Amino acid sequence: MRFALLVAVVSLIFATGIGPAVDQAKPKTHTVTMEGMRFHPDELTVAPGDTIVWVNEDLVPHTATSQAAGFDSRQIEAGKSWSFKASKKGDFPYVCTLHRKMKATLHVASAAP
Using alpha carbons only, what angle is made at residue 22 by residues 5 and 85, rounded to the nearest 5 degrees? Predict the structure, then answer.
């Protein structure tokens, strides 16, 4: 009898929505292209847990390197890609170490737009 009452109460809590929130945002994948000696987009906002994929569409190798965010793709050859999972919040400028004029910023916020 007590078990049946417990099951009924738990069912009622979840059915009415007053129980714990289970609708968590799922991690997303974002793409940054390297083309024309630029990062596209040059500013990207993501949420912690999201994955960013850099795709090199240029004819020369590039890197995506941020000391502050703790990532370094090393050399990404033409036609290849590299991915990184964002974990810490903040604004993280990054560069191509082979072409220092290539600059961009990764914003890791509590929720991506």
Answer: 150
